[in-house]
Amino acid sequence: xxxxxxxxxxxxxxxxxxxxxxxxxxxxxxxxxxxxxxxxxxxxxxxxxxxxxxxxxxxxxxxxxxxxxxxxxxxxxxxxxxxxxxxxxxxxxxxxxxxxxxxxxxxxxxxxxxxxxxxxxxxxxxxxxxxxxxxxxxxxxxxxxxxxxxxxxxxxxxxxxxxxxxxxxxxxxxxxxxxxxxxxxxxxxxxxxxxxxxxxxxxxxxxxxxxxxxxxxxxxxxxxxxxxxxxxxxxxxxxxxxxxxxxxxxxxxxxxxxxxxxxxxxxxxxxxxxxxxxxxxxxxxxxxxxxxxxxxxxxxxxxxxxxxxxxxxxxxxxxxxxxxxxxxxx
Amino acid sequence: xxxxxxxxxxxxxxxxxxxxxxxxxxxxxxxxxxxxxxxxxxxxxxxxxxxxxxxxxxxxxxxxxxxxxxxxxxxxxxxxxxxxxxxxxxxxxxxxxxxxxxxxxxxxxxxxxxxxxxxxxxxxxxxxxxxxxxxxxxxxxxxxxxxxxxxxxxxxxxxxxxxxxxxxxxxxxxxxxxxxxxxxxxxxxxxxxxxxxxxxxxxxxxxxxxxxxxxxxxxxxxxxxxxxxxxxxxxxxxxxxxxxxxxxxxxxxxxxxxxxxxxxxxxxxxxxxxxxxxxxxxxxxxxxxxxxxxxxxxxxxxxxxxxxxxxxxxxxxxxxxxxxxxxxxx
Lengths: 330, 330
Hints:
disordered C terminus; seven-stranded mixed beta sheet; globular; 2 domains; alpha+beta; Phosphoribosyl-aminoimidazole Synthetase, Chain A, domain 2; CATH 3.30.1330.10; 35% helix; homodimer; six-stranded mixed beta sheet
């Protein structure tokens, strides 16, 4: 379906569209050396959030954050957003205000603004759709294609925290003053887009491809590889799985590795670069933000993504994991 | 609610936002003398369309057209759009393709492109949200504020055709080869955004305020007046009510005037200008597009909108009409 959309839209692009459907954001030519970035993401109640688990402000924050993350993934700086909200007339009007406050809070925290919107009635679930613009120097823009055999595969930060937060919500675990649980819940409810990290990577002009991790490494890395026409080998013991997430996995009899591989909504950055550039890039990110960069594998020529266990044998290839957090109804 | 949103967002705008919430589109400063326009509009099944009455392509066309109309209303040229579609998993995937085709057809017909999108599952009605960017020379941009006492109030084209098309659908009238009915149905299903007309008006730099007619004159004119801090007097006998719409009104025992005043979704342009500029503006629009411009009243100092009947007495003031086409569920 997505590829069908891409074919349809791709056949009718105008000359000003430098990047069309299929990447984290579209890019349009302007009259100066910057490109205009444009992205959208829609959150649907019951699929992407539940009102029992998230306040209106949480919902708004997340709707904006996932779009900020898309602009980050292109190496850009966010500018202004518009947001549409559909909600039943029998819900309190206060909910729309709270969602707007969350949208604005996330935008403001990252140098962007909510510049307009549309509020409509609906007989169905609450729907929040955000479209966000951004700017990127053409020479700094990073795309999903560009990864080359031999490149190191890197991620920022830690994986699995958002999935663990979702598990807490599903299991009815409250933080009860435990800072680790509170952090997992926060990671799920109020993800932090890696804008400054992404800009540090983009400015260094050493990375070859980048995207954000929204659906989990096991789903997202194959997309980057497909766009780049390459394959990948991941050394699973290198995955920077969040420690509280790993410990929660132990408590509920789940594999910590699986949480790191398939937990969605971390919004960390996945990028590739020549091995010789790793230390410069990791240094630039750390100096700008304090966020760690971890090398988790390498790009190979042969198509397909191989996840290798500690014994060096493939755990599985590409799809086939259970998914924690791709959607509440999935 | 909308004003609450405006207050919330307005307090957190960044310096680059020249026009924030409350106009047809937001406007952002760029590095050249053009402003970037950004708008969004969301259509919800059962509120804004019914699948029994509109094909997927009609739905997509309309979702794009209403956004193109917002860019027109600012005097801008559309550039690229992103679209999010939510739909239940049990609907045929073909529907999403058809909606995408409609989105692309409307964009392509007006020099714009669909540059990206998001397709998500939903337990609720089909929702289509489009966000569209555009460009406008700063000196040519038209806003809802700016109308001054003494200005002539003008509309492009004819009013009431879309409302009449909706009545046909409600009453189960088919065109049966009748070109007039077919035209009314087309006006409702596939509205034409007045981009070229709007650009001719904007380029002339003679108009003082402009907006598009999405909810009907009786609702929209008070908005323009409120933004401009003025009032208006409309001579109702001057309203250019579509003749087929008027004749349908007669057949079903409705007032043609009411259809012209309160019928929504015409997407004609409502603008104001000094009386001396009317003939130049009407000439520019007609020369560029063949579309007629009609003077329907004048801006006055005193707040409030007065609709005057043929006898010169007020029919009603501002709100208070029955509404034909503000929404299927309204």
